[in-house]
Structure to design on (191 residues):
C-alpha cells in the first residue's frame, strides 16, 4: 500500500513538472521556430549549392533531351535567384555597407550570366555550342558564387542587416516567382 502511494505521488509530481515545463516551453518553441527560420545568406547558399549540383549533373548527363531539361532548370533557377538578389539582397547590402563597387560588380556579373542564359534558351541541345555555352555559364556562376560568399556575405553579416527578416522576404519573393514559372509548375506536379 505504501509503495502504491509513492507511485501515485511520483506520477503526480511528473505530471505537475510536465505542465510547468509546457508553460515554460511555449515561449521557447516560438523562439526556436524563429531560430530555425533560415537567414537570407543560408537561403542564397542553398540556391548556389542546388545550381552547382545541376551543373554537375549536366556534365555527367548523356542524351540531348535530358541535357535540355537540365539546362532549362539551371536557367530558371538562376533567373529566379538573380531576381531576388537584385530586388532585395543587393539593395540591402548596398545600403547597409555602402560598398557600391562590390554590389555593382555583382550586378554586372548577373547581366553577363543573363546574356549566356538567353543564348542557351535560344539554342537546342543538339547545337554544337550548347554544351560549351552551359559549361561557360557554370564556370561564370562558380566564380560569382565564390566572390559573393567570400566577400559580400561576410560584409552583409557584419553590417547589421536583419538577415532573418530579409530571408523571409527573399523566400516569399522566390515562391511568388516560382508559382508563375515553368519550374514552379514542374515542382508542384512532382510533389
Amino acid at each position: 500500500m505504501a509503495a502504491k502511494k509513492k507511485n501515485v505521488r511520483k506520477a503526480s509530481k511528473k505530471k505537475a513538472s510536465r505542465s510547468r515545463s509546457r508553460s515554460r516551453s511555449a515561449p521557447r518553441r516560438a523562439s526556436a521556430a524563429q531560430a530555425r527560420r533560415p537567414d537570407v545568406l543560408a537561403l542564397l547558399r542553398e540556391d548556389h549549392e542546388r545550381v552547382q549540383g545541376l551543373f554537375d549533373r549536366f556534365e555527367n548527363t548523356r542524351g540531348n533531351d535530358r541535357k535540355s531539361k537540365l539546362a532549362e532548370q539551371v536557367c530558371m533557377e538562376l533567373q529566379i535567384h538573380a531576381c531576388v538578389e537584385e530586388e532585395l539582397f543587393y539593395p540591402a547590402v548596398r545600403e547597409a555597407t555602402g560598398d557600391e563597387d562590390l554590389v555593382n560588380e555583382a550586378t554586372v556579373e548577373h547581366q553577363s550570366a543573363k546574356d549566356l542564359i538567353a543564348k542557351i534558351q535560344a539554342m537546342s541541345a543538339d547545337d554544337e555550342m550548347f554544351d560549351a555555352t552551359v559549361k561557360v555559364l557554370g564556370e561564370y556562376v562558380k566564380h560569382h558564387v565564390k566572390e559573393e560568399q567570400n566577400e559580400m556575405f561576410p560584409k552583409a553579416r557584419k553590417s547589421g542587416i536583419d538577415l532573418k527578416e530579409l530571408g523571409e522576404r527573399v523566400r516569399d519573393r522566390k515562391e511568388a516567382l516560382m508559382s508563375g514559372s515553368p519550374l514552379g509548375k514542374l515542382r508542384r506536379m512532382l510533389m
